[in-house]
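pasting for ref
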Amino acid sequence: MPSLWFQVHRALQAVAVVLQIALLTLTARFNSMDSSLLSVHGTIGWIVTGMLGVQFGVAALLRPAQDAPRRRLWVLSHAGLGVAVLSLALVNVCIGIALYHRNRYGVSNLYMPLSGWVRLGTASKRACTACPP
């Protein structure tokens, strides 16, 4: 039976895919907005979607058995792609927050949400010294 960590990881991945699909459907509503920041936000969103598809689909299908010789390489590539997807997604969330503030209040400050994510990432990295490999 798979470990609790693997079951939680798999469930969170499924939630991420569902949320990504829902968010992509919302982009049709805001497609008429024209902005270079919105273009960057949309481009990063599509890149994250593609990477998430690779991570959830292809990586899951190519996952070798625990004792397979190439398991270590798979784990490193899976974790590396996961960190890249999460990092790009968090940057895109910050861009989305900046877009919201610009459209709602006429102010666009990308530094504020980015600095918050950096602080959160640093704190979570320190707290997660016992995370499974």
